[in-house]
Every structure is written in structure tokens, then in C-alpha cells.
Amino acid sequence: MAKEHASELETESNDDGRRPPRAVVGSHRIEEEMFGRAFDKNIILRIWAFVRPYRAMVVISVAALLIFIGTQLLIPLIIRYAIDHAMTPAGVDRSALLTAAGAFALAILGNFGASYTQQTVVAKMAVNVLFDIRRAMFGHLQKVSLSFMDKTEVGRLMSRLQGDVNSIHEFLETSVYSVGDIALLFGIVFVMLCLDFRLGLLTLSVLPALLIIRIVWLPRAREAFMAARETNSVVNGALAEAIQGVRTVQSMDRQQVNFILYDDKAHADLRAHLIAARYAQVMVPIVDGLTGLAMAVVIVAGGSMVMNDRIDVGVLVAYLFYIQRFFDPIRSLTLQYSVMQRAMASGRRLTDVLDVKIEVQDKPDARVLSPETDGSVEFRDVTFGYNPNHPVLRNISFRVNPGETVALVGPTGSGKSSAMALVHRFYDVQRGQVLIGGHDVRDLTQESLGRQVAMVLQEPFLFTGTVFENIRYYKTEATRDKVIEAAKAVGAHDFIMSLANGYEAQLGERGGNLSLGQRQLISFARALVADAKILVLDEATANIDSYTEMLIQNALRKLLEGRTGLVIAHRLATIRGADRIIVLQNGQVIETGNHDKLMAMGGLYSKLYNLNYASFDDLPEEKLDTTALAGSRT
Amino acid sequence: MSSDAVGTTSLNSSARVEAARLGRGLSTLLRITRMNLRHPWQVAFAIGSTLIAVILQLLIPQLLGRAVDQSQTAIGGSVTGAAAERALWISALMLLAVSALRGLFTMAQNYFAEAVGHQVAYDLRLACYDKIQRLSFSFHDRVHSGDLITLGMLDLDGVRMYFSTALVRALLLTMLIGIGAYTMISTDPVLGVAALSFVPFVAWRSSVTQLRLRATWLDLQERLSVLSRVMEENLAGIRVVRAFSAQAYEMLKFDRASKNALDLAHDQVDVYVPNTSAMTLSFFFALGLVLWIGCNKLIAGEIRVGTLTTFLAFMTILQMPVRQVGLMVNAFARASTCGSRLFGLLDQDITIRDAPGARPLEISGGTLRFDNVSFAYSGTGNSAVLKNITFEARRGETIAIVGPPGSGKSTMAHLIPRFYDVTGGTITLDGKDIRGVTLATLRKAIAVVQQDAFLFTTTIENNIAYGDPWAKEQRIERASESAQLHNYILGLPAGYETVVGERGASLSGGQRQRLTIARTMMLRPSVVVFDDSTAAIDAATEQRIRATIRRLAKDRVTIIIAHRLSSLMHADQILFVDNGEIVERGTHQELLAKRGRYKALYDLQLRPGDDIAIAYRGAP
Q1: What stretch of H or E contains A457?
Q2: I need a surface site. Which of A102, A231, A354, B395 has the fewest CB within 10 A?
Q3: Is the domain of B301 the same as that of B435?
């Protein structure tokens, strides 16, 4: 049936005009190498570093595991003992039977205790390690440079924190069980050979057959499984795209075309899964056949040995029991190989993240910036570039006095935002010094610096949670009154009260249920609650409609009261309100002064202003395009 | 998203857990079963193979017992060595054949059972995709996209697994235990009961464990998703975190979420492990019992050693499937909840669709008219977003709509292509109600350029040709020229082949908007609405775009929604909307002369700072 459908689709796609040349659905996913080498000493050592704190647990679990395996090997032997003693031609040995019963009881209790201990300890140890690795990575990401964070997709990092960490978890769990499998395999071989060497050897001869078949089968099967996984992620990707882009799909009337294209992908997925299922299931008759073969060997060879009185019938029964457990270890051990390969690939990606250098670090003797600082900001001959060969700021010097508001103005790529980032020490300067309250920022602890430098960014990022929690943010000690006061000060109170639960209103993802302007007002309130001496507004009022802009103008005035302000803005209203304006171009200060002075100067500022646009956003974009292509950031 | 859109609600998580616990919905299961039966051959093969495999499976202990007895009889001397030897060979070959056949039929059983599941998954995938594509905007406003994706992935999987892990397994277990119990008990009632004694206990514990795990699993998923959210938001908002030096606080948040999840993960271990260990113990206990009774019977000469072997082998065969009773129960529960959610989607009414007897739209005059239009989003307390809107736009005219956020401007745009249906009044094109024409032709004729339109992860060329994927290259280039994008694209290393979208090259807001405009111009619409779609484009470029579009578009109605007055001053008519009503209308000059709300906005934008007070009167 599947086949019919497939061929029908194939002929369709050749001459049917409904599959247009330029249409695709769900064409992109994160592609990553799934398998690495099965063993990489360095990565094992790195993982071991996380397991080390739990090494006592590892020892306990392996010990319990060995006991567990031991009891499993013992039980058929007890059965054999019991049967043989019950069958003794000389007469019944009651006490032997009781011994057997006692031994059996002990064995199953031991089995219970060992399996309980071993499973609990292994599972908890593995899950602890999983959480530890994740915490270490997350903590590390809090410290690495922002430029690393900028160029790394969040989705990619999340897949490290989730998928990759999980495959290490899987690896740890299965590794312990692999030890058990190996022990079981050797145990069975040993016991069988001990019971009767020749019969044992004969029976074991089927073992290599299975091993060879598995080795031939594994890479092919894995390819089929991977293909199925791949098509599955393609199909799910296409579905996600259809959901997220549904409004565009409907307004462009693409439903029909997309449906046909999706059908292709869904059908490819179906086929891949059927192939994978075939590969998975083909092992069933092979294992069953080999088990049957081993049993047949035992019956013919062992049976005639019993007849010739060379072995007891109990041995025969015990053999039949062992054979049923025989192939399990081989199956799981070959699977373990894939788990290890996957874990090594994940481990390498994890260590890649953990090894990202932390560029900005507190000095050992770093000082705490006192909240009593005067809040002055000074740039002394600062040169800085993300790429040292292409500085975006060149020998910049300026000073912002306590309580003063200074606007930074300049075309895209002039280095405004970079200068702001240096105030907060997101990056370290290449040459020169940035001083806050008279201290070089590199001599201060980052945390105390951050407490005194609040930033409001262009994109108002809000967290899931209530409005109250968002305004309070890390200042968990801030009271409700203080939060409301801040919201009132920036003019956010009214709209917050109009929300269904007021301050307790739950914000959607990224605050999606609020308008951009409302989100920005909340982020202003957040900055106000943080109560820093220095406030940096990095294009905080771009992308906002004129109405919200009016609200924000007022909020700004409130926010800057009694603080040092550094403002990057586009709107002339904001800029004109500043005490002083610094005009940057190509990483250098070219003009400074207040509005009137700069207008009188007749330089770049007056030229921009006279173009009579309401904001510097309105500058022709060719300029922006060319600077953007040069790859520089502001 | 504009503030016009209604708030989103997501599926309540605790309700989900609740539903899982109850696991109700026989009708859901019946419906899934019917879906399975749509592939009757595969279902028949799967069931047939299961029956044969079970019977073969149950033959193995008998054959083993027989062989053991055969080796014993020789000792008694009742048969000659050669005859005994031959009997052994026959048993061995039979065992080999039965084992191999059992393997083959088990393979067929598993394969066909899985195949049925995948076929059903395929059918469901298509049905979901189709439904999701056709459900109206109001549905998508209401349902979180993440929930829909979960539906299409996890819930679909739950339904897929139903046939193989629930139905076929149930059949297999019933047969195995039923036939097995019958043969065992009829062979020896006491031993038979002893051998089966572990079955009820294991089945019970396994079901309880699985259902409990299922409940905690859903809980754990919930907690893990909180943890992911904490991490994801931290990484996406890393600049804010750094700006406030809130790393310590973020670690605290992480630790709290992490500990929550970790505790539950440990709880799960504590639920799972004691139960599996107890199940094993009960099995071995029963095995010991059989051994004890069996040996005693052996001594008394009531049974032969082969019979005992049969019983012991039978127990080993039964052990694994019985342990899976819990998985089966869980599969039923899962299929029932997943299925009911999935069918909840598939049974959704598509509120906006072609009316019976809808005709294709034929544009003759090209006049768009709003006649006393009112609108309220359903389920939002029904406060009207638009009230008595009336205006007319003729071919070649430009209408501009301006007003504070939340005044209903975007809603007006969304009504024209019937993204939502009016709740009062009518919208007509050439005098025909838009509800009387087919959706496909209506939406081809009316294009809305959205503010934050979605770009698909594919090449720029494919994105521009999204609405007309058969288009010739020259047309694509012309469209991108008219959106002032062509030169930029040529400057990219891969040109029109550059992949954009969610994970493609990052375009600036203005570039994205220009791409959206180009995409819309490909459709040759009769009515084009720019819904605040040039906000991120600089004024000079915007003017050039507009000039080109105007030259190309003498024969269409253009509607501009914008905040920036320079974008709309040239319109033939400007509507100032506030609170869902048109409060001022006229040309730019007329409105300036009125000295009302429009004038105040104009003053605010062109000469900022001086006269805020006037504008404030109208601020929200």
C-alpha cells in the first residue's frame, strides 16, 4: 500500500505542475554530528571529573550489580542441585532439598536487595551528574564574553544544555549496566564450561555467529535509524513552520501547495520509519533461531550425554536456563557502542562550551564599588575593537560629571553602543582606561559595578512571570510599594492596573501580550527599582510609536533625576534634553557641546538636525547598509 | 504583535495531568481503533502473526520437557539407544524449527503492528497539518504555537503507539496467559497455580507503577520545561542579565528550577525501583515454589523431570510479557489523553471558510467599501474593537489610517481579507459582500503587508515568490526592485540564494520589511494594505518604495496604516481612528486646518518637545 502511494507520488512530481519550482516547506534544521569516536580519553576524563564526587556511589552500584549478576547465575545451579537430588536413584535426600530451598531463598533475597540498591544508586547518581554538568555549563555561560553569546544561537546552546547533557546521562546509566552485561556474559560462559567443558564449548559455538551478524547489521541499522530520525525532524520542522507562519500562509493562499509538499515529507518519513522497523525487527528471528539452535545442540549432545550417564539431567535443565539469558548481554553491549559514540560527540560539544575562555574576570584584589560613588564616568584615551585589528573606538576621551546627562549621537557604526558596553565592562579596553567614580572598572568587582550601572536596552526583554516580578527582577528585597512607586514614576502604573490582574498579571513569552512601548516602560521601571547611580540608555526609545514616546519622554526625565545619564537616542526630543551632546563618527569624538552650541558650530550634528527628520532613524538607509556590510557593530 | 491581538491562553498543565490520571475516553480509543482499521491488511497480518507466534511460543516449553524426558527414558532402558537418539534428534529439530518460526512470526507481528502505527501517524500528520493551515486567525490567537507543536509531535506519537503497545500487546498477553494457564493447569493443577501465582501481583504492581510514573512524568515534563524556560530566557536575555549584574540571581533561579526537577527525578526512581525489584522477587518466589512442589512430586513419582522443566521454562517465557502489563495500561491511558487532545484539534470548526455557493471574486471597478462595520473579538468580553466604520476607497486611491496603539487600525486591515469576519455591517468589493466570494480568490486580490511578517527558512528568492512560486525570475527581481531591496540582495555573497528566516542570515528590521513588501507585490493585489509595515525602514527609502509602488499601482486601492506621518501625508484620505471609531477624516491639509488630534500629532513629530501638552490630550 505504501509502495503504491509512493510510486503514485513519484510520477506526479515529474509532470504535475502543482509542485512549483520555488516552493519548500521546513527546509532547515540544526544539523549536528551525531556520532564521534566510541572512545576518547580526554572526554572520558572530563566526564569523570563530574562523576568523581559520586565515586562512592559508583563503587556501591558496581558491587551491588556484581552481587545481582551472581545470584542470577546461581539460581539455575540451585535448580540443577534440587533436581539432581530429587532424582537420586539411591533414594531421596530430604536434607539436600531443604538446603536447596534455603539457598534459593537466600539467593532471591540477595537478588532483591542487590537489584534494589544497584538500580537506585545508579539512577540517582546519573541524574545528579546530569544536573551538575548542566549547572556547570549554565554557570559558565553567565561569565563568558558577550561577543561569544552574540555569535552563538540560543537554540544551539539550549541543545547543549538539554540534548547533549542527556546523552551523557544515558551513557552513564548504560555504562554501569554494561559492566553487568560483561560480567553476566563471562559468568554464563564460565559456569557452562565448569558444568561440562565439552557441552559448554559446543553450545557456545553459536555465540560468535550472533556477534558477527550484529557487527554486520549494526552500521546499516544505525543508518536506517538515523534516516528515520532525520525525516522525523524534517516533518516536525515543517509542522512548526506551518504553525508559526500560519498567518502568512493564509494571506498568501499557500495552503494547497504547502500541503502537497508536506505530504512528500510526511511520506518520506513514513517510508524511512518502515525501513528502520524492518532493520530493527530482522534481528528477532535471527536471535530466536540461534537460541533454538543452541537449545537443539544442548538437547542432542546433552541428551545423549545424559543417556550415557556422563552428566546429570539437572545439568541439562540448567543449560536450557542459561541459554535463554545467553544473548541478552550481546544485544545490549552492541547497543552500548552507539551510546558511547553519541556520548563522545556530545561530550566534545559540552567541553567546547565549558572551555570558552572567560575574558572579563574580577581581579583577585578587586574592590567593591561603593553605592556612595559620585557616579562620574570618564573615558581616557580608550581604544577598543571586537577584532583587535579593527578598532571601533579610537583614542576616545570624555568625562561625564555626576548627575549630568550626556547624549551620544552618530551614524550607525560610529561606536556608540560599544562605548556604552565598556562603561559596564562587558568587554575590556585594548588601550586606555574607563573610570567610574574615579576607579578603573578593571579594579572593581563586576557585581558591584553592575549594581551602579543600570542599562535599558533597545529590545525590552521581559521574563516569564508577573509584572511585579519583572519590575523587581533581582532586587528581591524591593517591596511592593517600591515597585508601584517606580511604575508610577515612569508612567506604567495606569496600563498595568488596566491588565486583568494588575501587578500580578502573568506576562506571556517575552511579554508578548504587551505592546512594545508597554514592555519598554516596564523595563524603565525595572531600571528605576535597581536604583543605580549611572543609567545607560542604549537606543531605548527606538522602534516606539509617537504615543508611547510621549509617555517615555516623561519617564526618562524621572529616571535621570539625580543620576548620571548616558543616552544613545534617535529622537531629537530626547537628545535636545541632554546637558551635553557628544557626536561620534568612525569611532572618534568629533563634536561636543549642548544643542545650541553644536547648531552654531555647523558641523555634522547641525547637518543631521537640519535634514528635518524627526529622528536620526530616518537617515537614508544606504549609509546604514554599507556600514552594516563592513561588519562593524555599534 | 500589535496590541489589537487578544491575549493567548495555553492548555492548562495541571488539567493535562488530571486528564492523564483519569485516562478516560473509551470513545477516543474506539476512534483510534477505527483509524487503525483503515489499514485492514496490515492489521490482519499483525493480529494473525501474533496468534501464531503465541502458539509457537507456548510449544517451546513442551518440546523442552519432552526432550528432557526422552533423555531420561533411555536411562530406564525402556527404549534402545538408537531409538532414543533418534527421538532426541527429532525433538531438537522441532525445537529449532519452532524457535525459528516463532522468531519469524514475532518479527511479522512487530513489523506490521509498527507499520499500522506509522500509517496512522502519517494520516494524522496530514490531517493536523491541513487543519492547522485552515483554522482561522482567532484560533491561532487563542492557542499557543508551542502547544500546537507539542500536539503534532508528542500527542501524535501517543496515538501512533496505541496499536503496537496497547492493542497488540493486550491481545498477546491475553492469549499467552490464557492458553498458557489452560495447558499448565490441565497438566498439573497445583504446579500450574503455583507457576501462575506471580502473574496477578506483577500485573497489578506494574500497572500501578506505570500509571504513577505517568503522572509524575507529566509533572516532571512540566518542571523541566520551567527549567528550560529559565535557561532559554537567561540566554536570550543575557544582555539584560549582564546589564543588571544579575548573574547570582539567575543562578538562584536556575538552582530552584533545577532542584525542583531533580527532586522529582529522584522520586521517580523511588517509585520505579522498589516495584521492579518486588516484581522480580515475586517471580523468583513463584519459581522457588514450583521447584519445591515439583521436586516433591518428582520424589513421589507423580511427575517426570520433563514436566518440571516445562513448567520452569513456561515461567521464564511468561515473565517478560507480564512485566509489560504496566506499559500496556500506560499505552491505553496515553493514547486516550493524546487522542482526545488531537481530536480536539481535528474537530475544531473552521469559522472562516467559503460560504455555500461562494463565487470566485471578479474585480471590475475595484472599489472597496466599509459599510457601518463593527467588530469584536470573540471571547474577550465582547467589547467592540471597531464601531460603525464607514469609508470607501476607489481604484487608484490611497487611504491612510492613523491613531494611537490599540485603536483598532490593524483590526481594520485584518477584516478585508477575512482574517476575521465582521460582527456588524458589511465590507464590499465592487458592491459584493466579501463573505460571498471564495477565500482563495479574495486573498489573492487583497494583500496585507504585516508589521512583523514571518520569513520562511529558505532562500530570499523563495521567500519573495512565496505567494507565486511559479513566477519568472524577472518578476521576482522587479518586485524586489520596487521594494528597494534588489541592490542589497546583489551585494550578498549568495545573492538571491541567500537563506534567510529563523535560522538563516540575519536581516535588519528594515530589510525584513522590504522583503515582505516585495513578497506582497508579487501577488499583483487589487487592494494592498500596509499595516505599519514600514516603521523600520528609513523615511527616504520608504518614499522611494512608495513612489515605485504608486507608479505600478494605478489600478489598485492602497491602504496605509502608519505612525510616521511622513508615510501617509500624501494619501487621498486620512482617517484618524481612536477607540474603534473614526474621529477625524480628510486630506492632510484639511486635517491640519482642523487643528485637532491629527494636527497635534503632526506637531509632535515634526517639531518635537515644544508642544507636548496638546498631543497628550489624545494619548492613551
Answers
A1: none
A2: A102
A3: no
Q: Which among B134, B276, B467 has CB closest to A119? A: B276
Query: In this complex, which of B75, B235, B509 lies closest to A154 when CB atoms are compared?
Result: B235
Q: Could you tell me the pLDDT band of residue B55, with boundaries at 50, 70 and 90? A: very high
| B34 shares contact with chain A (CB less than 8 Å) | no
| Angle between helical axes of A255-297 and A206-244 (0-180°, round to 10) | 170
Residue B582 DSSP SS3: strand
Q: Out of A412-426, B246-260, B367-381, give the one with best mean pLDDT.
A: B246-260
Rounded CA-CA distance B285/B452 in Å is 67
B537 in reach of chain A (CB within 8 A): yes
Strand order in the sheet with A393-400: A393-400, A377-384, A431-436, A439-440
For residue B89, the enclosing domain spans 13-346
pLDDT, tens digit, 9 for 90 and up, residues A124-156: 999 999 999 999 999 999 988 887 887 777 777
Per-residue pLDDT of B17-44, as tens digits, reads 444 444 457 889 999 999 999 999 999 9
Asked if residues A117 and A60 have their Cβ atoms less than 8 Å apart, the reply is yes
Ordered DSSP codes for B534-559: TTTS-HHHHHHHHHHHHHHTTTSEEE
User: How high is the mean pLDDT of chain A?
Assistant: 83
Average pLDDT in the A384-395 region? 86
Q: Are A112 and A158 in contact (CB under 8 A)?
A: no
Q: Tell me the mean pLDDT in the region B163-170.
A: 92
CB atoms within 10 A of CB B86: 13
Distance of alpha carbon B467 from alpha carbon B484, whole angstroms:
19
| Cα distance between residue A438 and residue A423, in whole Å | 12
Do B140 and A246 count as a contact with CB atoms less than 8 A apart?
yes
Chain-chain contact of A297 with B265 (C-beta, under 8 angstroms): no
User: Which residue do the cell numbers 556422563 mark?
Assistant: A310
Q: Which of A401-405, A620-624, B437-441 has the lowest mean pLDDT?
A: A620-624
Does B1 score more than 60 pLDDT?
Answer: no
pLDDT score for B31: 93
Phi-psi region of A502 (alpha: psi -120 to 50; beta: other; left: phi over 0): left
Give the amino acid at B249: Y
Q: Which CATH class is domain A404-411+452-623?
A: alpha beta
Task: Collect all residues with Cβ–Cβ distance below 8 Å to A139 and sequence separation of at least 6.
Answer: B251
Q: Is the pLDDT of residue B368 over 60?
A: yes
Chain centroid, CA B286 distance in Å: 46
Secondary structure tally for chain B: helices H, strands E: 24, 12
* A491: chain B residues, CB-CB within 8 Å: none
Residue with grid cell 506471580, as numbered in its chain? B198
Taking the C-alpha atoms of residue B620 and residue B81, their distance in angstroms, rounded to an integer, is 106
Residues B395 and B326 in one domain: no
**For residue B153, is it within any domain?**
yes
Q: What is the pLDDT of residue A36?
A: 65
Residue B73 domain-assigned (yes or no): yes
| pLDDT at A312 (0 to 100) | 85
CA A258 to chain centroid, in Å, comes to: 31
Residue B145 lies in a domain: yes
Task: Report the CATH number that the domain containing residue B166 is assigned in CATH.
Answer: 1.20.1560.10
Q: Complex ipTM above 0.90?
A: no
How much is the average pLDDT of A533-539? Answer: 85
Which residues of chain B make contact with A514, given a CB cutoff of 8 A?
3
Is residue B3 situated within a structural domain? no
CA dist B78 and B76 (Å) reads 6
Three-state secondary structure call for residue B215: helix
The answer as to CATH 1.20.1560.10 being correct for domain A36-196+329-358 is yes
| Domain range annotation of chain A | 36-196+329-358, 197-310, 404-411+452-623
Q: Tens of pLDDT along A609-630?
A: 765 454 454 444 444 333 333 3
Closest CB to A235 among B125, B276, B538: B125
